[in-house]
Amino acid sequence: MPSNLNALIRYKTINSCLYGGRRRWSLEELIDRCSEALTEYRGRKSSVSERTIRDDIRVMRSDILGFNAPIKQKDGLYFYDDPYYSILSISLTDSGLIKKILETLIRIRPEVNHPELEILIEKLTGLSGIKPSTEIMEHTLDYRIQEFPAGIRYKIDSSAKTGLPSDPVKEAAKKMVKEPGLTIPGDLALCWGDVLGLIHRPFTR
């Protein structure tokens, strides 16, 4: 399981390079792209080692995260054997993996700092069968609705029911639902795209 946000950023970056079969990539180019992605996200110069990218490719090729990515190498260049393969489309149905992803997202929450993350954590909590802990209840719904910038595509659903203590801010956060077009698929239809889709530029308030 990825131990930190950097690993998720690298997986997403490697996937974006290899997807579509537009070209083949050298290890050095993948290193450069991942370093650039981390630098942009972190806001400071970041570099990735050759060993790290080789380990990432090994993980992506394996079933560790459910990817089984068809990464091939020829003449020192990497590519997807199936150009239309993407890790973003891989469904999350294994309960053990879902629990590990949930733990990872809770751990990296302060670094992601995006309101959509809270909805995904809640969704994964339900799918994993884990009874929400006090930590989850206290910290997954602690964003202040009034601080969300204009343009975030959420609305307040006045019909939503919650079992949380009566707290106006937490009640409002709990009632947040996505507008049509952003709805997370059905109970067993979450995919890696829902997780990695949260990782782009840092969300700031």
Describe the structure.
With 205 residues, the protein is mainly alpha-helical. The protein folds into two domains: 5-89, Arc Repressor Mutant, subunit A (Orthogonal Bundle), CATH 1.10.10; 95-196, no CATH class. The protein has eight helices and five strands, in the order αβααββαααβαβα. Mean pLDDT is 75; it is low at 139-188.
Overall geometric form: globular
Q: What is the chain-wise order of helices and strands?
A: HEHHEEHHHEHEH
| Count of domains | 2
| Average pLDDT | 75
Record the strand order, biggest sheet.
1-3-2
Tell how many strands the DSSP assignment holds: 5
Category by helix and strand content: mainly alpha
Total count of helical runs of at least 4 residues = 8
Separation of termini? Answer: 29 Å
Rg calc:
18 Å
Which percent range describes the beta-strand content? Answer: 5-15%
Helix content: 40-55%
Low-pLDDT regions:
139-188
Give the biggest sheet. Answer: 3 strands, antiparallel
Topology:
Elements: H1 5-18, E1 25-26, H2 27-42, H3 50-61, E2 71-74, E3 77-80, H4 95-112, H5 115-128, H6 134-139, E4 154-156, H7 168-174, E5 176-178, H8 192-196
Antiparallel strand pairs: 1-3, 2-3, 4-5
Task: Based on the model shown, name its key terms.
about 200 residues, mainly alpha, Arc Repressor Mutant, subunit A, 2 domains, 3-stranded antiparallel β-sheet, two-stranded antiparallel sheet, 8 helices, 5 strands, globular
